[in-house]
Every structure is written in structure tokens, then in C-alpha cells.
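Appendix C. Worked example: Restriction endonuclease
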Amino acid sequence: MNHKSLCIAEWQSFGVEDIKRVLEQKDNQTNKKLENQARKIFEELVEFAHTEGNHIFLKFAGKKLKAQNYVGLIQIKSGFCLEILPKTFHTTKESEGFASKDIEDKRKSIESAKALLLKMLQSLKDSPFKQSHFAHLKLAKMPLLEVFVLMFLEELEKLVKKGLKSDYIVREENRNFLKGKLLLNENLKLNFAHKERFFTSSDEFSVNIASNRIIKSTLELLNTQNLSTNTSAKLMQMRFIFADIPPSQSIDKDLSKYQNLGYFRNYKIILQWCEIFLRSRAFTPYRADSKAFALLFDMNKLFESFVASEMRKWLCSAKLSYENKEFMGQIFGENKDFYLKTQEKSKYLALEGDKNRFLLNPDIVGYQKQVQTDQALFIADTKWKILSQEKQNYGISQSDIYQIFAYLAKYQCKRGFLIYPKIEDCKNILENLKLIFKPEILNKEANQTTLTLCFFNV
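Step 2, the predicted output written as C-alpha cells:
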């Protein structure tokens, strides 16, 4: 199949003409046919946007649709795929995205954004992405769905080589011979006039278990997607191996069964992939439906996860390409005797009687190792926003300032950081910008609480 994908950046608007330009590169049809096809595709995406809850992914902007801060893919029933990639550059208008670039620059920007997305996905906790050994630059030239399916198939091939698990399952059947335990009530109902038959229950060692059924369901789902010939051939090989295993009749029930079985360790990563494809809501509030197949990720959470992951690597002296050496120096100085807590949920802002209210949830809290105290040394909040000198307060949200101030005050912490992505045309004037909080409710010593803007090179 020919891949028909429109690549856009976060916050970029697109319409029928943008889809038509993609179709022109793939099909040799008349202008009118292409326009009708493009309009039909756009209407399918409009239908997706109209579905309850999907406004956080796509919104209307006049006669166009506009992406929000979720990245990933949306593939509609016709097979056309909308790829939404991280935005790491300034544009005159926020809604322009990749559309503002010339052809070669656009191609390079798209590949760079896709490679960045795949790199950031590897930092997610409890996800299968970090296990992939594909080269990001190679994958960046491929459609996103193709990338995810290949990662899944690579993991499935490893599992098949190790051998599929079997287990004892209870099988109830009306047989012509006695096997297992005779179920008297059922046998009387079904075999009153057939004394030669026996309705029995027996334990059988079979590959027809919950984990294998989930994999079979995933293979059947992926078989309905628009994939390349090579990927479809690999998928067909796996479907042949699982041919005698029925698909799951209850995804949630079967997924819950494997989680407490220690001897299914080999299945952990592949079942994480299955959950991503089957539920389509492992990382977002999107609920799978018949209108589209979507894998979408909140860029705010991705950025937070990526920054925290890189900070931990720095503290462990892991080998990294250190364009962020200066950033790490801002946070830690020369001291690596820190440990980090992410998404900490230990403090509340208010008390109502004996009940805590308004849970605080800072992105990253730094503590010193080997010190018997819960005193935070710094608090950092990550913000996936591109700052600009042209914007009021450089584009720093007042609510973000209120939020970090609440964290610092409650934790009685003197060092705060707001971490933003560093992009190619980010002006140095914003580097190391410090704000000093002077709240009257705190004592004089606490008045020296500082907030520093940091820029993380993605």
C-alpha cells in the first residue's frame, strides 16, 4: 500500500488543500478527483474531532483543524494518517508549523522532530519503547505507525524464539468418552436421551491462554491497518504462528490475568505493546472507536519524563552526548550526591478539619543522598513551551509562576527551576534569568528564594 501521511507540528492548522498536496504526491488522478478525496478525508478527521473528548487532540480553527499539544498519529478508516510531531522551532504564526518552511528544510525538520519523539518515548516509565534498539535516524524516515508496528513485531519475534507459554485451562465439553470430572447436572440436561455421551470438565495443557489471546487480538487489529508490503509480510508470519489461538473476548479481563504471574516475565514487554494498540489509551484519555486508530502522547508529560530521565543519567555518570552539560551544572553544580522524586504526592496546600485538600504534585524534587531529612534541595517544573522575547513576560505563564511559588512555599525550599525546551533560535538573553520571590508571609531568610529559568536542549 502507498502510505498517505500528512505530517504537521503541534498547534499547526491544516485543511483540505494540505491533504490534497499529500495525495498529489501519491496518486495520478484528476484535480477534481483528488479534491473530492481530500475533502472526504478531511470530513473523517472532522468526525474524529467531533467525538466526545477528542477536542484535546484536534480543534476547529475557522474552516481548518488545529492540532493541540498531543503528538503521535491518527489513522482514519480510509487509511490516511495524520502525524503530529513535536514543535521545536519558532514561527511567525503559531498555526504555521512545518508549513512555513521550504521543501528541503521541511523534510529535515520533520525527520528531526520524529527522531526526537522516538528518543523521548524511550524515557517513559512502564512502556515498551525503551527496549527498542532501532536507530532513530533510520526510523525517522518511516511513517510513525510503521515504526510502532515494527517495534512490536521485533519484540514478538524474540518471544516466539524463546517459546510461547502454555498453561492448564479448564475445558468443559460434551464428549463421546469419559475424561476428567463428570458434571452431573449438565450431563442430565444434555444427555438424558444419549447415554453414550458424557458432559465432563478436564484440565488441558494449552497455548490458548489469556496472554496469547491478547497477542492474537493485537495481530488481528494491526492486520486492518495501512502498512507497507514488508511489514505486512512480517505481520502475516506472526499471524500464521498464532493461527490456532482465538482472539480475546475480554481484553480487560485477559490483561488483568497476566499481571500477577511471575513466570510470564518474558511476556511483559510484548503485552505492554498490546495494551498500547488495543486500548489506545495507555498514555492519553483517547478511547478506541471505529472512527479512527490513534496513538497520542501528551508532550508536557513526555518532556517531563525525558528531562527527569536525562537528569538521572547525569547523576549516575552515564555516558551521554552532553549538549546539556551547562544545564546540569545549573541544577546540580559539581555535586552528584542527589536523588530525584518525580510527580511527588506527599504534601497538600490546605487543611479542612482533619482532611487534606489540594494535593501538590511537583514534577521533579531533588533531595540529598545519605541525609536523614526530607528537606528538598530544589524543585523543578518542566514546561513544554517555547519562550520568546517578543511575548509579554517572555511567554511565561502567570499560573506557572503561582504554581512553582506554591511548591517552594509549602516545601520551604529556596531553589526553584522552570525548565523549558531550548531550540535553535532561542535567544541567550533568557538563559539564567533569575526571579527572586519576596512574599511577606515568609521570614527574611526565606525571602531569598530564587526561581531560575533553565533551557534543556532536546
